[in-house]
């Protein structure tokens, strides 16, 4: 979490201009704050995030506002941190949570809230199980109605722009049928990620010689685990020349490559790269989207 405090401060300054002067003052007092990782994360959070926000709130209160001063930025504010568990710096994660809780303990009425999403990790849960934190386990909330709406909307959208689907519906009636939709929702088992990946395979996969109507029954046979879906998708092209080199490079590289730069790196033709990737659009996007239409 080397740049975590700096990133938060930058975003707060953009949304809440009243904090800028206090962040700048902190940077002048402590030039080391400009070099993430030089000072402790606790110190960075206090001086770049929490103290500037509190100072901005205090200076914006009606009691301290000079006459005819423009109204301050509306409060309260919400900071969203998505996927906290994905941070590999466990110690930094714990420092952030501890610093945040200390700040709210000292300032219980401050108009600031953090909305944090995370998988259940013991070192996170242990620190968040305090009265000041509202915990909500999303596993208790069924996502099936939302997934049904998402699936229905995607099928309707594709039917409007896909002539093959429209022709099939004109001849055979509604597609997918109510039975197929029910089977598909049951197969997805509440996973939006799997739903999205599955629909990409059914509706937008091209080059396999199949229509969406052909692919739907195949999708219902796929392993609902994402690993299984990826393996089945990759298996369809693993026999192609340069498959292993291309997939290994994409998987292991820290950089994003275009088709042409990937071909240049591997010293093969652009069309050979495209030949492998064109049938992998359902799982490799959006890096190659512009080339795989």
UniProtKB/TrEMBL annotation:
InterPro entries: NPHP3-like_N. It comes from the Eukaryota. Signal peptide: none annotated. The keyword Repeat applies. Keywords: Repeat. Residues 73-119 form the Nephrocystin 3-like N-terminal domain. PANTHER family: AMELOGENIN, NACHT DOMAIN-CONTAINING PROTEIN. This is Nephrocystin 3-like N-terminal domain-containing protein.
């Amino acid at each position: 979490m080397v740049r975590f405090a700096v990133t938060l401060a930058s975003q707060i300054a953009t949304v809440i201009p009243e904090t800028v002067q206090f962040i700048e003052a902190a940077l002048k007092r402590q030039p080391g704050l400009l070099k993430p990782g030089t000072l402790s994360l606790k110190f960075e959070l206090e001086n770049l995030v929490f103290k500037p926000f509190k100072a901005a709130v205090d200076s914006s209160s009606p009691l301290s506002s000079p006459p005819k001063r423009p109204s301050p930025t509306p409060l309260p504010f919400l900071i969203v941190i998505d996927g906290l568990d994905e941070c590999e710096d466990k110690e930094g994660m714990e420092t952030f949570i501890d610093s945040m809780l200390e700040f709210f303990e000292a300032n219980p009425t401050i108009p600031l809230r953090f909305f944090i999403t995370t998988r259940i990790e013991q070192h996170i849960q242990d620190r968040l199980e305090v009265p000041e934190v509202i915990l909500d386990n999303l596993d208790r909330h069924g996502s099936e109605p939302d997934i049904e709406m998402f699936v229905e909307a995607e099928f309707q959208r594709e039917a409007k722009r896909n002539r093959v689907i429209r022709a099939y519906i004109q001849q055979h009636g509604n597609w997918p049928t109510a039975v197929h939709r029910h089977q598909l929702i049951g197969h997805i088992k509440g996973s939006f990620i799997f739903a999205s990946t599955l629909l990409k395979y059914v509706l937008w996969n091209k080059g396999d010689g199949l229509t969406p109507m052909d692919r739907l029954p195949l999708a219902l046979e796929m392993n609902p685990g994402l690993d299984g879906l990826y393996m089945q998708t990759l298996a369809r092209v693993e026999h192609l020349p340069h498959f292993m080199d291309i997939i290994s490079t994409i998987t292991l590289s820290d950089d994003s490559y275009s088709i042409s730069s990937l071909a240049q790196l591997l010293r093969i033709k652009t069309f050979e790269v495209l030949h492998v990737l064109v049938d992998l659009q359902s799982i490799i996007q959006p890096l190659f989207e512009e080339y795989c239409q």
